[in-house]
Write a structure and sequence with these properties.
This protein is about 75% helix and about 0% strand. The chain is an all-alpha fold and about 375 residues long. Residues about 1-5 and about 370-380 have low confidence and may be disordered.
Amino acid sequence: VGSQTMAVALPKDLQQDASLAKRRHAELCRQKRVFNARNRIIGGDTEAWDVQVHDQKIKEATEKARHETFAAEMRQNDKITCILENRKKRDRKNLCRAVSDFQQSFQKPETRREFDLSDPLALKRDLPARQSDNDIRNTISGMQKFMGEDLNFHERKKFQEEQNREWSLQQQREWKNARAEQKHAEAFYTETRLQFDETARHLQKLESATRKAVCASVKEFNKSQAIESAERKKQEKTQEQEDNLAEITNLLHGDLLSENPQQAASSFGPHRVVPDRWKGMTQEQLEQIRLVQKQQVQEKLRLQEEERQRDLDWDRRRIQGARATLLFERQQRRQQRDLRRALDSSNLSLAKEQCLQKKYMNEVYTNQPTGDYFTQFNTGSR
């Protein structure tokens, strides 16, 4: 019984098979839509793209104009800043130069009161040892006279005091003179700066007047040039009209517009024509071309009909194949179902027989002795 059993189809398996078949049919339909060149449509909206490109160009032009305006303002501001910075540096440089000149002229190191204490050449200028007071060297025990031990101490002290007073008065006079010169230099600097500003203002006015005069002269010149250009264009237009009229007259009376077919005849044969003189085909040639075109149209329609019939034939064959496949699958399922029913009935009958035999064996075993049981079993089995 175990060797004759087969797999039983469940509703879940049938549903899975139906889902696979549905997906297979959808994939076939999608491939038909994608790989069919007649039904596939691929393209884009060119008008919308042109509008987007135009808007982008307008946006870029506006952004560029705004950046150029900002750049011009920045350049103007940078120019003004550079002018002011240069003027400030020039004024500072002139002031430093004036201060340096004043220090070199009126504040020399030699004019200071304590210069003798910091003079680097003091030792070179000073005399070695003492050479006064009637003592040549004063070298007794290696000592010289100390400060204030000379004989002319009082005269020297008086002379130093007088000298200090003179130095103080001289320094005061020099300080007053320096202050006066500094004030004079500041006044002169202010006056010079005002003169420079006035000159710059005057030059700016002259430049503005000159620019206005130049603009007026350029405007007058442009106006005269425009009048002259308009007059010249008018004359050229009149001359062009006359030339066009003469050309039209010549063409009307010539062979070019009269459409004389003889002028297109070629010297190489009657079947040849001159391209620049040919005026078109004759009515017979046009009728022949129309006839050929009609034949081509009919031939194209015939080919299209054949192709349509061929497509219909292929569709019919594909549908018949799919129908035959479906019928074959249904027949296989029906045969499997019948086989499974027959197998189920056979298994059921065998199971019933086994149950009856087992029940009978149990009854015989319980009602008879062991020896009789084996004898009856052997007899029944024979």
